[in-house]
Amino acid sequence: MRFKEEELAALRRLDQGALFLAIVQFVGGGIFAVAGCLMAIGTSAAFAASVSSGVVGCLTTVLALAMAAVVITQGIFLIRSRGTLNGIDGADPGSLERVAAAIESIRRYFVLEVVIAVVMVLLAAIGLVGAGPQSFGPPGSLPIRGL
Amino acid sequence: MSRFGSYDASGGTWRPREGAGATGGGPSVGVAFDGELARSLARLAQWLRIAAVAGPSAALLQLVAQVIALLVRRDRIPHSGMQAQLLGMACGGLIALGISVALAVLLHGAAGSLRRAVAEAEVDAPAQFVAGVGRLRVYFLLKATLGTLALLAACCLVVLLLLLMPHALVANPFGSMRP
């Protein structure tokens, strides 16, 4: 005896959730990549304004592109786990190994989730550095004042 | 060997222990959570706990960093604008913190269930496995739904910014955005 029907049903439902999240991860990763490219274009203008805002722009661009890579890799791990769980059968002799492989992919997803949390803290720290008195050009030129 | 039986990795077969089984009134036997599967589940539970701590911590640090950044620049912001920004930042940060705490609670619950599923002395290991996988599924669905909403909100914001001040956004995104 290997898997009971309720365990297989739970794994199949997890499979659907992983697919939904993987699609969102790919779209989000694509948006991060586009945003990173746009930031890279704007970095030269930021350097022209001041060196510190240029450095902040460079760091933000690198982190945005890194985020894109990590988010897309997370989606790949979810798709891989889904591919392992897809069509799982309780009578399959290798079902335990397949579930173990899927769980390993999900674990890697959460390892990258921790990496993302660290990157978000770094982004916040860069924002903090960028908030210094020399970072936003002459007084009165706060970015959000235009709103 | 668990209290329900053992899994023969070489033959890929599950041997129930004598007297345990779905029939005969004994405990319900599902899968043997030992061997590679148990190790994978234990490692996953460990990383779920780490992620459950890291998410809210990052949200809290982000909120603190944003507030500090705003306070550092306070001399460049009119008093009324400062209050509005602080209020908006506090609300946004607290919502993000609340969401990450809710996700962390789900992750922590899933980690606990999976850890209990691989525990040797656990009677209802299959039920704990199903509960852990179910919580993980809810986490995935919640995160995907929130991600979809965040993507929609980001798209709306970008369209709004492009309509209001297109040249400032494209020309100098890190400097002055004043048209």
Radius of gyration of chain A: 22 Å
Major sheet size, sense and barrel closure of chain A: none
- Structural class determined from secondary elements of chain B: mainly alpha
Pattern of helices and strands of chain A: HHH
The average pLDDT score of chain A comes to: 79
Largest interface: A-B, 73 and 73 residues
* Biggest sheet strand line-up of chain B: 1-2
Distance between the termini of chain B: 71 Å
The low-pLDDT segments of chain B are: 1-5, 11-30
Largest sheet of chain B: 2 strands, antiparallel
Oligomer: heterodimer
Description:
The complex is a heterodimer of chains A (147) and B (179). With 147 residues, chain A is mainly α. Chain A has one domain. Chain A is built from 3 helices and no strands. Chain A has helices spanning 5-49, 51-85, 95-130. In chain A, helix 1 runs antiparallel to helix 2 (51-85) and helix 2 packs antiparallel against helix 3. Chain B has a domain at 53-171. Chain B has helices at 35-72, 79-118, 125-164, 166-171; strands at residues 5-8, 13-16. Chain B has a two-stranded antiparallel sheet. Chains A and B meet through helix 1, helix 2 and helix 3 of A and strand 2, helix 1, helix 3 and helix 4 of B.
What key attributes describe this structure?
heterodimer; A: 147 residues; mainly alpha; 79% helix; elongated; disordered C terminus; B: 179 residues; two-stranded antiparallel ribbon; 4 helices
Brief description of this entry?
The complex is a heterodimer of chains A (147) and B (179). Chain A is mainly α.
Which secondary structure elements does this structure contain, and how are they paired or packed?
The complex is a heterodimer of chains A (147) and B (179).
Chain A: H1 5-49, H2 51-85, H3 95-130
Helix pairs in contact in A: 1-2, 2-3
Chain B: E1 5-8, E2 13-16, H1 35-72, H2 79-118, H3 125-164, H4 166-171
Antiparallel strand pairs in B: 1-2
